[in-house]
Structure formats: C-alpha cells, structure tokens
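Class, carefully examine what follows:
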Amino acid sequence: MKPQFLSERKLLTIVFTLFILTSITQAQFSSVKDGNWRDASTWSTDPNATAYPDSTSSVSVSHNVVASSSGYYPAECYDLTIEVGGVIDAYTSEAVSGSLTIRNDLINNGTIRPGYNFWLEIGGNLYNNGIITKHYISQYQRLYIMGDIYNNGSFHFTHTTFSNMMFTPNKTEHLHYIKSMNDSTINLGEVRFVDSLGSLIVDSVAIIGGQINLAGSKIMLPSANPYPNNLVLVNAQIFAGKIEANNNTISTQSGAIAYLGNIYGPGKNTVFSNANLNGTFISGGNWTDNGSERMVIFKGETTFEGNFADWYNGNVWYNGDRGIFIDGTFINNGNIYDATTDKGLFLNQKDNSTFISNGTVNNKAISFTGTCNFSVSDSISATQFKATDSNAVVNITQGDIFFKKTVTVDFNGGTLNLESGSKFYTTYQWYNRMQNILINANGGEIRFASINNDVVINSPTVSGVYYITNSSLNGEITVPSYGYIFPYSGYNPHVIIDGNLSNYGRIENHQSSGSLYLEITGNIIHDGISWKNIETKLNGTKDHSILIPNDSSWAGKVVLDAMLTGTTYQWQKDGSDISGANTQLLTFNNGLSTSLYGVYQCLVDGNYSRKIFIGNKLPSAFEITDVVISNLSGTQTKIEWKTTVPASGFIFYAENDTTDGYPLEAIEPNGYLLEHSLILENLTNGSTYYFIIDQNDEQWNNIRSIPYSFVAGGTGVGTDETELPREFILSQNYPNPFNPTTTIEFTLAGDGLTTLKVYDILGREVATLVNEELRAGILHQASLNSPQLSSGMYFYRLECGKQTQVKKLLLMK
C-alpha cells in the first residue's frame, strides 16, 4: 500500500521505475496514430510484432485511441500511461459502450473521455494529472478500483466501486486512499464497497453523488492534514457502514440533499464519528425504539448546521418514521424538524450522551436511554418526550424546555432533573400530558395540561395544570397568579403534597364534574384567586401554618389531623376547648374564614399535638434579644432586654456558681411587654452573678435565654471588660415584599463576630449573609439574592456577642 501523502515528483519517479522493470518481461506498446485499441496497426512494438495490447502489456498513449469501437470487446493491458496530448476515447456512437481493464496502475497526463457507457477497471492505483471527463448524456461512467486515487487534475466519474476482489477471490482487509495533490475536487459519483472489509481515506475534497453503499465498510477523513478533508454530498444516499470524520466536515452542495441511512430496503446502520455536518440532510430508515437496522447513529462529538428532516414534501416511497441515535455529544446549530405531517423524525439519546441545541428542534419525538444531558436555548416541538425504561435519568442543563405541540411526557418511571429556576412547560393545549415520571424541579416552573398517574414532582412552581390525577408534589410548591390546578372532567384525583404550598392562582374542582382532594404535610400560603377544591387535609408532623394574607376566599372543606392516636381527643383553639371536637380529625366543612383564625391543638390522652396556626399574618417568632447589663452600684445591677412578641416572666439568678440551679428570682410586673427591665438588688459587691431570662407569651409559649454573667459593682459584662453600648439596630429590609433581591442594614453595639442568617417559616436556615468580625459604629449592609427560594414568609436574624434581633421579610415572585 502506498503512503498517504506522495509528492508529484516521487510519484513520477515510482512510475518510471515500475515502467523500466516491467519492460524487461512485458511487451511495450505505444500508440502511433488515432485508431482502435484492437487494431494492431495503431500500436508500435518491436519490429516483428503485430499484436495489440493485452493483459501483459505496458501501454503508453500519446495520441487519440478508442478503447472499443464495435461490440463489447474489452480493451486490456497491464499498466497504462496516458501522455500529455494522449486521449482515451471510449465510443464512436451513443449506442456503443466501452470497457478498459488495467491490471496494475494507470497514470493519466492527458485525457480520458468516457463513452456513453464506460467501465474502467484498475487493479492498482490511479494517478490523474490530466482530465477525466463525464459524458454529457450517460450516467454510467463506472470506475472499479483496487488501489488508491491521487488527483492533480480534473476528475469525474458517475460511479465508483472500491474492491480487492476484481482479479482475486480473496476477501482481505483493504485500504483505499483518495488524495488531492493540490486540494482539487474529486467527483466520485455513486460509491460502493463490494464487501465489509474495506476502508476509504478521503484526504481531500471529494464530491459524491448518488448512493454510497459501504456494505459494512467505512470512510475515514484524516485528522491531521494541511488541506481540508471534506465529503460533499450531492443528492446522495449514504448507508450501511461507518464514517470516521475526525472533526472534519461532511456537507451538501447548495440546493442538494443528502440521505443518511438506507431508504430503499434492509441494510445496516450508518455510523458517523466526530463529524461536522453542514447542509441539508434527511434521515432514512424506519424508526424503532431499539434502533433496528437502517438507523443513523452519531458517535463522539457532532456539530450540525443546516437542516435535518425526516423526508421532503410529497415523497411517499416509504411510510413510517425516521430516526437518529446520539451516542456521544450532538451540538445542533441548525434546524431539526419534521418535513411532512404523515412521517416524523425521532431523536434518541443513548446512555452518557449529550444533546445541546442552539438552533431549533421541531420533530416528532425525543427519547432517552440511560443517563443523558439535554440542553436547549430555544423552544422545542415534539409530540413525545419519553424515556425507554425506568433507569433513565435526564438532566436539563440549560434554559427552558417549551413544547409548542401537543406532547406526551412518559418516562416509564424514569427521572427528569431540571436546572434550578428553569421551565418545563407547554402551550395550554388540553391534551398535553405527563405521566410515569419523577421530576426534580429545583424550583423550576412546571406547566402541563395533564399530570397523570405515577408522577412525582419535587419543588416545582406549578404554573398551569388543567387535569391532574393521583400524583405527588414534594418540597416547595408554588402556583403563581396565572397558574391553576384542576381535575379533569369526571376524575377525582388524590394529590399528595409533601412540603409547603403557596397558592397565588387557582386550586379548584372541575367546573362541571371532577373533585380535587389535596393532602398537604407542610405550610400553606393562600393569597390567590380561588381555593375551592372538595377537600384539603393537613397531616404533617410538625407545627403547621395556614397563612391567608389578604383574607382570600377559601370555599373547600379543610380537615386538620391531630396525627396522634389515643382514646380521648379534645381540640382547642387559642388554649380553649372547642365544644364537640373530640375526634382525631377537626373538619371545617365550609372552608376557612376570619372567624376561624387562631392556633389549634389537640389534646390526645393528655399529650398535645402539633400546633396549627390559621390567620392572615404569621405570629412573630418568639425570641429574647438586646440584653444589656448596667451596674448601678455595688449592690444593684439593671438588666434590660426585648422580646419579639409581648411577654412577661422572670430573671433567675445565682451568686458565684450555678451548681444548685438559680435559687434567686426577680419577677416582672403584670402585663405583656416588648421592652423589659428589672433591677437585681442586695448583691455582694465584687461577686460574679449568673442569670437567665425566662419568658411566656400570651399563649403561654415559654422560652429561656442563654446564661449571662456579670460582676456586681464592676464594669465587666460576661467576659467583656467594658459596658456594652445600646446602638444594636437591625433595620427592616427594603424593598419588602421583594423579588428577587433585597437589602438589609444594621449597626452593632460592639465589635465582634457577627452573623446574619435567613430562615424559613419552619426555622430551617436557607442563607447566611454575614459571618465575620465586624466593627461597631458603622452602618453595615447585606444583600439577599433569592432566585432559588420560593415565595413566602422568611425571617432574618442578626447576632453579635450576646445581642440578637429578628425581623421578617416576604418574598413574592
């Protein structure tokens, strides 16, 4: 096999050497005038020879020679050189075919002018430095070659077959090079391999038209070359083999179409590896989910620009859908679409594959096998979005997934992970539906007309669900003002929401028939247009709140569950027994109104259940803040503090140590206050005292402070040697309500480690804004940016040393 790259001078040297060696054993023929290949008078050999060239002859053509002028008798020789000015002319009339067989190499420095039908068989290599033309009428100028093609001139055949079996029955692996010495174009026409053992290296620009039947063989584009290595397809069909592009380009001529995969009948898959596609492509093969024969597979990294469709309008050769498989990374910068209404293009991602679309996707179906990454920067249109089995995991890694068409999302129990804040939604089509799927929404927006059985959605913003059947929603659930949750007509779905639900839209039964049952374990904010489903049951295990900020209407039945099992039950509101409420469930048959606002608990066999708060604003978090210690004299010390809700109580204190608890106490006067002070008297000057503050609010909720210490008559407070100033101020955030950013200002009473943290209504920390040493006497600022948080009430707490303050803020998206 010749090396891939040969200079023109080296090629001529090799050919000349071969010519000298073969002249020793083979007859040498040269054309002396225009004439017939089979006319001995047109050839010059030794003086006594009268034969015309045969399979053992080395031939040199310097004039015009007709390969065959009558009948179908083949012209044949061992090797052939066409000199400058030499012409192989293969016909005398349109009705006459020509045939030329060369068992070794052909060197063309002149012209090959094929006939109406012309067969050129080459057992070695073809070196073209001249002209190989295409007949202006015929489509049957065929090249059969066992070796390589090196082009430095004009090259054009309508059919090219690569083989190692023309002169031998052996089936061995064979490699063919196509090399353009000056980056010229080679027109190969239809290309085929006669077996599955061949490989074709295209080291140049090759324009191919018609079918490319690789028969299991492959085409390779070299990865390292100063010249571009391109396949340009002209209304071509390529199938049944592999194309290793090595990051080179496969394109179509302007106005031409390339068919990838077998259109006409059975055949093997066509595989593209690391290809850049540019042009207009159509997928062949009838689609099946398991990827039967005649599919198109893209391996490695593929970039695509142009148009990729299932078929073109008006062609009805084959019914059925077309398909492509992505087994690697596919980057779409073009347009992938269905060209007709009766067929469609299926796109399947295999395990560990990635689809990145910077263009448009408007095809029939998208399916996934295994773990896949799916990223689009524009909307997609697909009637099916599905996984092939329950092990599929699809990661939406960029942008919004918006379905323009009516779509069914069915993952067979598989998982879809949305990027935080992304959207997975569709137009308001009645039959857009989602089923058999686990979605981790990460706060992303879900908008579907139908959520069917076996759907679990974690932490979504549900922006539109017409028709919902038995499903589960988990985490922070938000229904925005334009969103709604309805059951479909005639259905009575039971929907479990394992988490918090904020409704700013509609939660309703169907207008004519169909009732919605909700079961909620978390907190509720209802500030929406309506809430009138048939039943809402609260069955969480922790303290629970139903916040109705603007006293919005709530018409559906509400059931409170004590979540404790016993023999005696007594429900209480604001600490007082509710007459007749002596079962595990407390039911409000006519929804919620302002008259029902309060704090509910159930006493079950003497044990209190969780608290359930119903009202238009949440009770403030009950905390002790801003503790200040001032020594008035050697025997008197003043203790001042604040509470976040009105409260009253005690200071328990002790001298020197607390091994016996706090045996001394100071009692606050009657009344519930926000600002408190007590004077501890009869102290021992110089002694260290320890104390805690004990407080009860109006509902008799009890809290206690951390232990404090001071030295009577001294200047020390705890371990600090100076009295703390009183400028410890936490300002209200602005703006409030906010979305998504707000600012918090504060000043400190003393230098120290300062923390500013944000908590949800369940007391879970959701953000740390400050955690560092800060100085007193300076106005400090911190910002909260909350794209990952759901709408609702939150608290922020400032702490420096023994001083704390808490305020609330409201996020409304």
In short: Residues 1-25, 313-318, 716-725 have pLDDT under 50 and may be disordered. Residues 8-25 form the longest helix (18 residues). The chain is about 0% helix and 50% strand. The first strand starts at residue 28 and ends at 31.
